[in-house]
Amino acid sequence: MSFHDVEIDALTGGPANLAQYRGKAVLVVNVASRCGLTPQYAALEKLHGQYAGRGFSVLGVPCNQFMGQEPGTAEEIAAFCSATYGVTFPMTEKTDVNGEHRHPLYAGLVGTADAEGHTGDIRWNFEKFLIAPDGTVVARFGPRVEPDAPEVVSAVEAALPA
């Protein structure tokens, strides 16, 4: 199943409609509001703003599987992200990224290796997957790799539609 065909709801309800990203590059990130890595929201928003006009989007996927660091309701998550980090990029519903109830979105992502060769389970909040315009996963970055790290920026630039 292609990334574009996965069904997932938006944070504030209704379908997220991943088909709208056909022909665009997307950085999918499992996010959390109460994590030591939460300040990455600022760099994610900057990256989103910098490349949105060139066919790119960040897609935040809230997850509460790592020490309960995303306990809020959809409304609380949206308010926190907007007020604290000025987040304008789209967000999905809160989702399981690991385990028996892993969302199909992540079932299609975790087989991709990062630079260290890690595949499989998401290790922590803010793990990142870069989706090419054709829906294939072209890169995976560990949680501690900052969204504005040279390797992320160069991968995003290489994945932008022509």
UniProtKB/TrEMBL annotation:
Statement: the UniProt record of this protein carries the keyword Glycoprotein: no
Gene3D superfamilies, per the entry: Glutaredoxin
Protein name per Swiss-Prot or TrEMBL: Glutathione peroxidase
A Pfam family matched in the record: GSHPx
GO MF term set: peroxidase activity
Entry similarity comment: Belongs to the glutathione peroxidase family.
UniProt keyword annotations, A-Z: Oxidoreductase, Peroxidase
Lineage, top ranks: Bacteria, Bacillati, Actinomycetota, Actinomycetes, Kitasatosporales
Domain Thioredoxin stretches: 1-161
Database matches in InterPro entries: Glutathione_peroxidase (IPR000889), GPX_AS (IPR029759), Thioredoxin-like_sf (IPR036249), Thioredoxin_domain (IPR013766)
